[in-house]
Amino acid sequence: MTEKREYRMEELARLAGITVRTLRFYRERKLIPPPRREGRIAWYDDHHLARLRTIAALLDRGHTLNGIAELADAFDHGRDVGDLLGLGEPTEETPVRLTPEELAARFEGEVTPENLAAAMDLGYLGTDGDELVHISHRLLEVSSALVREGIPLGEVLQAGARVREHADALAELFADLILRHAPEPELHRLRPLARSVVEAELSLALDRRIRKGSDRAEDA
User: Fold this and answer.
1) Cα 166 to Cα 171: distance, rounded to the nearest angstrom
2) pTM across the whole model
3) Are 148 and 112 in contact (CB under 8 A)?
């Protein structure tokens, strides 16, 4: 087990590459959590160091201190990874651990407090110490790809919420079908069949939608 390290203010500032005055300013702005106090001595730890490095990375990417303060508040009050994963990790999806600056790099200019809160409300993101955990590598890759195509992250998240509603309804439909004819354990074994049906139907629906668009273009 790694021993927890603690630092005095001067050492923390040196390791973070900032001045003591800047560190005090960040603390006053609540950009970092309060230190542990032992009498008149303030002790900082690796969580503070990670937060300071995150602030530096976000500043380099053009975020303002006001924006970073709002992000820090959303981060500190978001659901933790235990709430996100519930009783266990997803059966087929792979969670992804990210630092706040890595998340900002994936969604350039789109990681706002509002979008962060929406992603946490959807259950896409949770917090674990100084890291964020995205519940699905596939969803993370798809959403970042859509943003790179010029679609605002806020609209991607709104679409995700609507897809979630339909997906829940489809899962309920399939579960009811199976449980009418088989015991509960069979639901887990047969779940790949449900996914294949949904993927095939979505593929056919997209074909129909694309053909409809092509027909309209030809008639114009």
Assistant:
1) 9
2) 0.72
3) no
